[in-house]
Design goal:
The complex is a heterodimer of chains A (317) and B (310). Chain A has 317 residues and is mainly α. Chain A has 15 helices and no strands. With 310 residues, chain B is an alpha/beta fold. The chains are: A mainly alpha (317), B alpha/beta (310).
């Protein structure tokens, strides 16, 4: 009988050992949980003490959950590029990449080991902040299922944003360069997509009003009635909209935003109602493509960035 | 064991390798010599599978290397010129990491044997950060041996090492060669190479200028070395004969010692000696000056520069 022994990725194991010996992980953990606690307590203060009300509305309690999970997602979005952008570029800077690439280690294993290590840190951050999130449970309104769903969302978002960091880490020679490009990509995904949808809406609206003889005039009335159309699908790659869809499903938050999306996109109920599923699926596909491209570029037959890109686009070697 | 046939490589418009031919047989300790930018590192990276060549073919242990095929990679242990180590790992942990890539991380005895081979067995629990440069280089060499490769490609392994460390490295390489490893080593320290290598190759502007054993190469180019002779009498007559001989040039004398560049082989040298004696010269010493790899290297690479400038 064959012996199927589970083998931990050697790169992952080494990364864990190394990160355990540096103060960086501990500092990230401290700052992350410190901020979570600070924002959590602030949200509680605003909800329960701020107005000096005798009664607390149920909606307010649920908004505390939305705020805290939103902050957690925001922090993860900020931290993930930092954790992944330096992975391969760092090996290149330390001049250890060439050695690794001449061993039996495949680029796929190298990439997955590095990503696993980054995800471990992110999951550690998420799990370490559970006691802070548990504050919400003290007043009720949120189930464990909701929390599990949030952790899955964070996990997939981390892979998605992490894959961008990995991609630029392979493409760029220096960690600083890779980090800058990763944050630029993140900004495009978060704000660029929103801007494209917004500008498309405004242009459509202005064109429509030109047809009616109102040259260059923009009105919310027209904006609401015309709709932006399928360009709204671009927002499927925006993790903030994914989060909004989750919050709407769980506690009814961001309902107005999702309602607007349904109205403006003219996409129909099916897509908007299952926005969370579609969004997470698309983001997972994008992550897989980026990780595959990173592994392809890392194949040990090329030199500079141009060659790495050429290898990716031409499908050679 | 390793064969490069008409290998070319371009970096943009710069031609790093210009139809490089090289063959290294099994068990050879081959010294790769060349000035900076001659193409040593590029050709070594191609052999290690880190770069693809733009033209020509490469064979490793009889297998033609094609992009994507990977079985030949297992036969090679590569040590780059500038190598990094993970400073916050201990020596044994560093070895275990690379061993784990080959599924041998639990074989600590084997890893200690490798460390022992490079003289680091006592330092298994020391952080890599605390090792000297020479020790780090030996650790890197031990790392290349983990998967027991047939061929070792070592790019400037002795650079920056003090003489004692260089001597130790030389001994380790010699022993590895005796153990049957085929070794390709590049270095700028030519006396070291001429002492330990079974054969050498001088590369210049991406082409192999000369290749063979140190003795073969030096004897081939020995005609470029001056004839040295010491007169005990009849020096004037001897000088006249030398000046009249069409094969001589650059005659220089210091007292009774005379140096002359002579264009001819051993037979011609004997003829000249006989002619000198017949002409009345008394000679107590007569020999061809010994060539060195360093002098030859300078001569060949200077010639290359002249050609390039022409």
């Amino acid at each position: 009988m064959r012996n199927y022994r589970f083998r931990v990725n050697p790169v992952y194991k080494k990364e864990l050992k190394q990160s355990a010996r540096t103060s960086r992980t501990a500092i990230i953990l401290l700052v992350y949980n410190g901020l979570m606690l600070l924002f959590g307590l602030f949200a509680f203060y605003v909800t329960f003490e701020g107005d000096r009300q005798l009664s607390v509305s149920y909606t307010d309690i649920l908004s505390v959950y939305s705020i805290m999970t939103g902050i957690e997602l925001g922090l993860i979005l900020l931290i993930t590029p930092m954790l992944t952008a330096g992975t391969i570029a760092g090996e290149r800077e330390k001049q250890t990449l060439d050695i690794l690439l001449t061993t039996r280690l495949t680029p796929e294993k190298l990439i997955s080991g590095k990503l696993q290590s980054a995800l471990s840190t992110i999951l550690m951050l998420v799990f370490s902040s559970l006691p802070v999130l548990a504050l919400v449970f003290s007043v009720g309104g949120v189930t464990f299922r909701d929390l599990a769903q949030f952790i899955v969302l964070i996990f997939i978002t981390s892979i998605y944003i992490g894959s961008m960091g990995m991609f630029f880490s392979v493409l760029c020679r220096r960690t600083t360069e890779a980090t800058i490009w990763s944050y630029v990509a993140l900004a495009i995904v978060l704000f660029g997509t929103t801007a494209v949808v917004g500008v498309t809406g405004i242009l459509k609206c202005m064109n429509a009003e030109q047809g009616d003889g109102y040259y260059g005039v923009f009105s919310l009335y027209t904006y609401y009635n015309i709709g932006i159309g399928p360009v709204c699908l671009l927002l499927l790659i925006n993790p903030l909209l994914t989060f909004a869809a989750m919050v709407k499903d769980q506690v009814g938050g961001a309902a107005m935003l999702m309602g607007c999306l349904e109205q403006e996109s003219r996409l129909g109920n099916y897509i908007v109602e299952n926005w969370l599923l579609f969004s997470l699926t698309l983001q997972t596909i994008i992550a897989a493509v980026l990780l595959g491209a990173s592994a392809r570029m890392l194949r040990p037959t090329g030199g500079g960035r141009k060659q790495r890109l050429r290898r990716l686009t031409s499908g050679m070697r | 064991m390793v064969k490069l046939d008409q290998v070319t490589k371009y970096y943009g418009s710069f031609q790093a390798l210009n139809g490089l031919n090289l063959q290294i047989d099994k068990g050879e300790l081959f010294g790769f010599v060349g000035p900076n930018g001659a193409g040593k590192t590029t050709s070594m990276k191609i052999m290690a599978g880190l770069l693809a060549c733009d033209g020509g073919t490469l064979w490793i242990d009889g297998e033609q290397v094609t992009p994507g095929s990977g079985s030949w990679r297992e036969k090679i242990g590569y040590m780059p010129d500038f190598f990094g180590v993970y400073d916050n790992l201990k020596v044994m942990e560093y070895m275990e990491f690379y061993a784990s890539i080959y599924g041998r991380e639990n074989d600590r005895r084997y890893l200690y044997e490798l460390l022992d081979r490079v003289g680091l067995a006592e330092r298994g629990e020391v952080y890599v950060d605390h090792l000297s440069r020479g020790m780090k280089q030996r650790l890197c060499l031990a790392r290349t041996l983990i998967h027991d490769p047939l061929i070792l490609i070592l790019d400037e392994p002795a650079s920056g090492m003090e003489p004692r460390a260089r001597y130790e490295l030389k001994e380790i390489l010699r022993q590895l060669s005796i153990d049957g490893k085929t070794i390709l080593v590049s270095s700028h320290i030519l006396p070291d190479l001429s002492e330990m290598c079974t054969s050498i190759g001088i590369i210049e502007k991406g082409k192999m200028v000369v290749k063979g054993t140190v003795e073969e190469i030096l004897s081939t180019f020995s005609e470029a070395n001056p004839l040295l002779m010491t007169f005990t009498g009849g020096q004037e007559a001897g000088m006249r004969i030398l000046k009249e001989d069409p094969r001589t040039r650059n005659i220089a004398s210091r007292g009774s010692n005379v140096s002359v560049l002579f264009n001819g082989g051993e037979e011609e040298e004997a003829d000249l000696l006989a002619k000198l004696i017949a002409g009345g010269a008394r000679i107590s010493a007569y020999r061809r000056a010994e060539g060195s790899l360093e002098a030859l290297f300078l001569k060949l690479t200077d010639k290359g520069d002249e050609n390039a400038n022409a």
